[in-house]
Amino acid sequence: MLRISAPIIRKRSSTARWAPPGSLITIFGTNLATDTISVPDTEPALPTKLGGVQVYIDGVRIPLKSVSPTEITGQVPFEVFDASSVSAYIRIERADGSVSVSTAQAFPVPGQNPGIFAQPGDDPRPIVAVHGSNYAMGLVSVDGAPAAGDTATVMIEDRSYSYTVQANDSLAAIRDGLIATINASEPKVVASAAPQFTRIRLRARVPGPDGNGIAIATSISANAAVVLTATNPMLCCANVENSLITEDNPAVPGETIKLYATGLGLVNPVEAQNVAITGQVYNGPEINTANSTVSAFIGGRSGNVISAGLKVGSIGIYEVVIELNQGLTTNPKTLLTISQDIYTSNAVTIPIQSPTVPIQ
Questions:
Q1: Run means of pLDDT, 10 residues per run, the chain, 360 residues
Q2: Which of 97, 129, 189, 290 is the most exposed place for a label (fewest CB within 10 A)?
Q3: Domain 2-110, what fold?
Q4: 3-class DSSP state of 113
Q5: Distance separating alpha carbons of residues 293 and 54, to the nearest angstrom
């Protein structure tokens, strides 16, 4: 039997058989290989033959991450992005010299179908996620339909930074104008552009808890059509960047976290898309964004997705950076999903601890 599930970390259900270009997939069956072999994460490229096993998608051998008698993990080629469906089969060379070929199986290839990496076990499984920054962070969203003469202001403690909208300014131009104004003289905070949406990331200049609690707010001039929104009232939640989120080291409301996924499809800019090569480690550019916007839903509330793109140094893996909603409450098994278009990932759990209510 040949059964394809994609991405590999999705719940094994019928909806998991949609395999976007570039995604990691697992093929389940019996007698799929003689031995259990896995390619180390340190390898810069994946082989197209592993332990005598080859997998063909539309006649092309795909890169393989691991093989075993019951499972084969590989990557769907980015090159099938313009196909609505593909056909896959397995060719196995046995130790005795015999060759087995499976029956071909067709499966759809949507542009995206996200799945989140999680720990082993029964669904919903604990997420594989890390704390996002050594620094306290904040976020300001720039929206609306601005007109020339509108004034947008970001306040950091008692210091105000304003930008007056010029004719034909885009939201990105307003964002960038505010960033330049803040960085010109702000003593405690550094501003930068978030890769997804027109948002300003604010980061304390000093690492650690000393940056927590720096107040941020926004205002606009009378009758202005530009809209500024600070997602939290202060910079928040410095931790040890890239340390694993666990019940002993939980995430907190308002914190920035990183999770890992596959199946997010093609990315922009074109420079990133051009160097996203099937079966090879992605080496940058670091700032890249999935073509289809990613949203997040955590504990019944929306999370602010800051970025979602291919992770440098990995194959078929995307890093999704999310600012958690300030209104989340303590729950060691808070449910989390991400979505693109009509496609929603597997549900995973993440430990959240409110500063006032410890995890029991």
A1: 44 53 90 93 95 93 95 93 84 89 87 92 94 97 94 98 96 97 98 94 97 97 95 95 96 97 95 95 94 96 96 96 95 97 94 74
A2: 97
A3: Immunoglobulin-like (2.60.40)
A4: coil
A5: 34
- Going by the DSSP 8-state scheme, the letter that residue 111 receives in this structure is S
| 355: exposed, middle or buried (Cβ count in 10 Å: 0-12, 13-18, 19+) | exposed
pTM: 0.90
Query: Is the separation of the CB atoms in 187 and 202 below 8 Å?
Result: no
Give the residue carrying structure tokens 């995890």. Answer: 359
Tokens representing 39 are: 């390619």
Residues 326, 166: Cα–Cα separation, whole Å: 33
How is the chain split into domains, by residue range? Answer: 2-110, 125-132+240-352, 137-230
CATH level 2 (architecture), domain 125-132+240-352: Sandwich (2.60)
In the beta sheet, which residues pair with residue 310?
318
Sign of the dihedral through C-alpha 174, 137, 306, 357? negative
Q: What is the DSSP letter of 80?
A: G
Per the structure block, which two tokens stand in for 114? 């996200």
Indicate the CATH number for domain 137-230.
3.30.70
Which residues partner with 244 through β-bridges?
A: 130
